[in-house]
Amino acid sequence: MASPVWHPYAHLLTQQDAPKVVGGKGPRFVLEDGEALLDATCSWWCMIHGYAHPRLVAAIKEQADTLCHVMLGGLTHDPADRLARELVRVTPPGLEHVFFSDSGSVGMEVAMKMAVQYHHLCDKPGKHRMLSLMKAYHGDTSGCMAVCDPEEGMHSLFSGYLPRHHFAPAPTAPYDAAPDAVEQDLAALRKVLEQHHHEIAALLMEPLLQAAGGLNMTSPLYLKGARELCDEFDVLLVFDEVATGFGRTGKLFAADHAEVTPDIMVLSKGLTGGYLGHAATLATGRVHDAFIGSTPQHAFMHGPTFMGNPLACRVALESLAVFEEENYLEKIARLNRVLYEELLEDPALRGHPRVRDVRVLGATAVIEANDAADLKGVAAFARARGVWLRPFGRWLYTMPAYITSREEMRSITQTMKAWFA
Ligand SMILES: *Cc1c(COP(=O)(O)O)cnc(C)c1O
């Protein structure tokens, strides 16, 4: 009998039987027949330490012996308290309060509710819409779908059901763009803010790297400019660092490239090293303090059952400790050099007629094909070479685990290039 498991984003008529994973070690997972695949995507970008990392596994086991779960409503525990302090320590200065939840989408829902309630409490109840960017992806729940790219995104069929927000054009200036190129992107953002700021609570963005919307990369100057515009128009700046957080762009957070502190920042994917689902929504003192007051409306009405789960917090603490003790930023820089040399500096690839663009940032690289059809069959092609690639649309990308060796990184890039050769 076919499995009753309903797979994500799957087209039921054409989907193939999913290979069964029985384990994994380092950057590879292992299938039931013993086949080991080098994971070029580290499981939707979250398994940053790879599979079966001994310290992370030990942390979960140790915590399981002590306390697997307890509600955070009216109670607290060491792992939640310590993780909150650590997140405040490592994130940009000014982010001082941490609201836990169980997934990236919910972390973004929390951010949006927080922003709307903040303005309500500041006597600006008219500021109740979001400003998002084209090509954005912020999650699959209803609130998040409403701030994903409304045209190219995968949620357009739900448009009748979703609340309406504002959208500014996606930035087009690349990472190393000159200031005047970035000015054009910022002018487009300013235009929407000038028109609609009176009803905009927050500007949402995936800083530097719009991930699921096509690995669209932009300049740190765009983040700086967005910060200034938000201050000018009394709009909160929300950084969705669910994908970019924990080293993906080459610094611990994308915000660090621009030395910008957003008012609210959301972390998930890499937070627990991928070992358990969890998220954190961080807020500045200014946002938090607006909630200090005596009316019933001052309470922030949100509380996921599993927020601050001790197992998740404990493994997140271990993940961060390993990241810092083993100098992961240096590992990421090494991977980045391989991606540069192998992909960006390969004239045959960049000049290939089916390749529209090649982009690299931190431990992220994408070959953008001209057409989604150009990538049909690439997953099976890679699997035959021992590599797990899962492209979407016309984007063939890698976001490897940071413990991937240079040789392994090369075997991923060579597989990607071989497809076009
Ligand atoms: C994956 C992702 C989300 C959603 O996180 P889930 O844990 O899948 O709900 C939100 N924002 C960004 C930028 C993401 O990459």
Could you explain how this protein is built, in words?
The protein is α/β, with parallel strands linked by helices and 421 residues long. The protein has two domains: 60-324, Aspartate Aminotransferase, domain 2 (3-Layer(aba) Sandwich), CATH 3.40.640; 327-420, Alpha-Beta Complex (Aspartate Aminotransferase, domain 1). It has 14 helices and 16 strands. It has helices at residues 42-45, 54-66, 78-90, 104-121, 142-145, 179-196, 220-232, 255-258, 285-289, 310-325, 328-344, 347-350, 378-383, 406-420; strands at residues 21-25, 28-31, 36-39, 95-101, 129-133, 166-168, 200-205, 209-210, 216-217, 236-240, 264-267, 279-284, 355-361, 364-369, 387-388, 395-398. The strands form four sheets. Strands 4-12-11-10-7-5-6 form a seven-stranded mixed β-sheet, sandwiched between helices. It has a four-stranded mixed β-sheet with strand order 1-2-3-15. Helix 2 (54-66) packs antiparallel against helix 10 (310-325) and helix 3 packs parallel to helix 10 (310-325). The longest helix has 18 residues, at 104-121. The protein is globular. The protein binds pyridoxal-5'-phosphate (PLP). Pyridoxal-5'-phosphate is lined by residues 103-105, 108, 137-139, 206, 211-212, 240, 242-243, 268-269.
